[in-house]
Amino acid sequence: MIKAxxxxxxxxxxxxxxxxxxxxxxxxxARWDDDEHDISAGTTYxxxxxxxxxRGTLRTTSWFSEEPGHTVALWPTRDSDIAIRKPRTFSNxxxxxxxESVYRQTLxxxxxxxxxxxxxxxxxxxxxxxxxxxxxxxxxxxxxxxxIRDKTTRRIILRDNLDGKINGLWSKGLISRNQAQVLxxxxxxxxxxxxxxxxxxxxxxxxxxxxxxxxxVQVYDQPELLKKLMNRKKPKK
Length: 237
Fold this sequence. Notes:
By secondary structure, this protein is α+β, with helices and mostly antiparallel strands. The chain is built from five helices and seven strands; from the N terminus they run E-E-E-E-E-H-H-E-E-H-H-H. A five-stranded antiparallel β-sheet has the order 1-2-3-4-5.
């Protein structure tokens, strides 16, 4: 057993979660040497546990002195035909929280070519950001862009559905008006997936994931960047 490797955490593709952090639970190396022909080879066996779903993986890393580099294989095998989209990390979004977990699950659905589930997941991500930011309601607008008022009292109507919450993100200054309009379209795509079993093309889902990750950057990364910029050492005049 290679004791130094046990307990080490690495990011690999999980058989069910996509790319996640894994802990090496056991490790050993097997090798052979041919002194007569001055060649050698070996394989390191890492028994790894996913830190998310706890599924096990055997990773083999093999090398041969007469060939450059090394070969890595994972067991159970992964589908090499799918385009893997790796999860990103965001400054103020902790790993393992419900929102971050739904984000990884949505990527897993995309990576496994499940557009209906991925589309519904994108809607859940928007809902999750609103919940995390304590946005409970917001204004609603007509197709002409006018705020909707009560016909009798003329007071502005606030709604606690996702339509209103997206506008609440905008009112709170977390996103721009253009971003709100994009999120509304993502909301509609997610509604169609969840309620009409729509299967949008994967290419469109990928663009929607880009927009969802941009929302995460806006909400969870930029406040941290702002602090760094405000505290940076300014040049002397």
